[in-house]
Amino acid sequence: MEYRNLGNTGLKTSLLGFGGFHLLEIPQKSAETLLNEYLDAGGNYIETAASYGDGESERKIGASVSKRRGEYILVSKISARDKAGAARQIERTLRNLRTDHVDILLMHGVASPEDFDTVLEGPYQAALEAQAAGKARHIGGSMHGWPGGLIEALNRGYFDVVMSTVNYFDRCNYPEIENTLLPLAHGKGAGVILMKPLADGWLYKNADAAFRYAFSRPVSVVVTGINNEKMLRDDLKRAESYKPMTVGEETELLASAPELSGYVCRQCGKCACPLGIDIQEIFAAEGYYDRQMARGVVTDTADYALMERLRFWFGQAELGRARYNRLEKQAGACDGCGACLAMCPYGIDIPAKLALADYKLAGREMY
Question: Which pTM does this prediction carry?
Fold first, then answer.
């Protein structure tokens, strides 16, 4: 398996990382089997969080592989927003994991620049004290969706490592991740941890392409949740056989991926409106709101149920509405002339999408 430098930390991570959230779904014996098979195959990155099952994921990892502590990079996340609470979480995390230190301690869910200020005043100070005591080697932050808090942290010179959502679906909803956060992290020498290569499972029908896209990003490690042996072996095979995606292959994926086709705006900037409606900005606000998931059409019951579970998963609906409310001319101004239709290289019915976006973002009573 390929190994990559984790920024300037001096650590080298295996291409495939083992995320611990889904260990909550299986018994300890199964978790032990999966974690040890992962290590036996050359994986060396195991990650969890204090809040996963109120420490259960940490406890399963500690019980399963603490005897092999020297073989892997260990990461956990702290969710408390005050110094004393964070200090208690750190101590409990170390007990749960049966270790005297973690290699990376992440501030969990740094949601915005304002949240980063709160983190800086409280849990970050506890993390610094843990680092000085040898209980944490490096400090970083994580965030789902919009990366504003991580961008703020890096711009101000904080965090050795950042962890963010990166996949071919959400690049259309949060383009700042790949356009701003990743280049900024590289410029600052920060390691980048990629999570959610399958967009929380939304890309499950196209997993091979989704993992290849993720492995091809300029990141240090691709972390995925694993809860059965077939999943582990499939993911290991993808990592071991990985070949970088070419520009042409990436372009084709973004054009033809079934999760995107017919509805999701790729933010290519090629459309325009004779009435001056900022189509791209409206669809960007919709991406913040519900990841452009609700399309006004239901063709598959299982996919619909999954979409309903995931569309507000990141809790950023109000961020989308605020972005929409700043617009001088909103989607309701569309007269349906259709002048924009021929401009979209992806065949999106822009007037229909504008109407649905307005229903979502303006809080209309009926669609």
Answer: 0.95
- How is 307-356 classified by DSSP, letter by letter? HHHHTTTT--HHHHHHHHHT-SS-GGG-----TTGGG-TT---HHHHHHH
Secondary structure of residue 34 in the 3-state scheme: helix
Q: For residues 266 and 255, what is the distance between their CA atoms, to the nearest angstrom?
A: 9
- Residue 10 has what DSSP assignment? S
What is the per-residue pLDDT across 257-290, written as a single tens digit (0 to 9) for each? 999 989 999 999 999 999 999 999 999 999 999 9
Q: List the structure tokens of 80.
A: 């408390």
The domain ranges of the chain are 3-252, 279-361
Q: How many whole angstroms separate alpha carbon 196 and alpha carbon 37?
A: 21
Quick: pLDDT tens for 55-85: 999 999 999 999 999 999 999 999 999 999 9
Query: CB of 15 within 8 A of CB of 215?
Result: yes
Overall fold of domain 3-252: TIM Barrel (3.20.20)
